[in-house]
Specification:
The protein is mainly alpha-helical. The protein is 67% helix and 0% strand. The chain has one domain. The longest helix is centred in the C-terminal third of the chain and has 26 residues, at 221-246. Residues 7-16 have a biased composition (Basic and acidic residues).
Length: 266
């Protein structure tokens, strides 16, 4: 059993159940029954934890809150600082997020918004918020509309890495063009995307409960902080590379233009 009261097998099963209900939600146009069955199948609060965690990633990681700037703002500032060069802007975004990952501590400034059904270590929240924003900002620089539900789901899929292939297969979503294309071109309706997002959240919680991030969250404050920061930087670098692959140049929207936003990095 993981440190949050459930094991990786439990989160995997919950994720597989939700993924298996994506096509049903797509056909019916209603996510309610599929999500309700997922809640009924879970008696330990796992479904509530996944919903709350997912809400944080989307509402804060992409849209921003308080001092935590949105992915749109971060992308526009980086593009302005890079003089309109998209690839340089992505390098700036990656560099800034690695620095934040190494430093940590910003979640404490966001107050009670981060009350969760389970006691997630602060560095866990920080890591996934940074990873979500970095990925979404990369997508925006590459020309994708991060307000579109399909693109937001693709951002979340990037966070689970290799698991995204398995998730999409179980969800019945296939395409030769890669994970992003398979979600965006499938044109899954909003109810189906809601169920897919829930499946992604279950997978992420499974990693939190049994992986190295969770262990570092309970490490000795000084030593754990140093080691944890190094691991976060390494993992952010891996996700950054994945984001560049999943969001190739020439997305569905125009690349944002320089001007109008404040220039400069953090």
């Amino acid at each position: 059993m993981g440190i949050f009261g459930w094991g990786k097998d439990e989160t995997q099963e919950a994720s597989d159940r939700a993924a298996g209900q994506v096509q049903e939600a797509a056909r019916s146009g209603n996510a309610g029954s599929a999500l309700e069955r997922a809640r009924q199948a879970d008696e330990g609060g796992l479904s509530g934890a996944a919903s709350r965690f997912l809400e944080r990633l989307l509402d804060v990681g992409i849209d921003g809150r308080g001092p935590f700037e949105s992915a749109r703002t971060v992308a526009d500032k980086a593009l302005a600082k890079a003089g309109g060069d998209p690839e340089e802007a992505i390098r700036i975004i990656q560099r800034d997020h690695r620095r934040l990952g190494a430093a940590g501590g910003f979640v404490t400034g966001l107050g009670g918004f981060f009350t969760m059904p389970v006691a997630l270590p602060a560095n866990v929240l920080e890591f996934y918020l940074l990873a979500t924003r970095m990925t979404a900002a990369t997508a925006r620089i590459r020309g994708y509309d991060i307000d579109q539900p399909q693109i937001r789901s693709a951002v979340l899929l990037t966070l689970v890495g290799a698991d995204s292939d398995d998730l999409l297969k179980k969800a019945g979503v296939f395409a030769a063009g890669g994970k992003l294309t398979s979600v965006a071109l499938e044109r899954l309706p909003a109810p189906a995307l809601m169920v897919l997002n829930k499946a992604i959240a279950f997978r992420l919680l499974g990693r939190l409960g049994s992986g190295v991030i969770a262990k570092l969250g309970r490490a000795v404050p000084v030593v754990g902080g140093v080691i944890g920061g190094g691991v976060d930087v390494y993992m952010l670098s891996r996700i950054a590379n994945q984001a560049e692959t999943e969001f190739p140049r020439g997305g569905a929207a125009e690349v944002p233009q320089v001007g109008g936003g404040a220039a400069g990095g953090r």
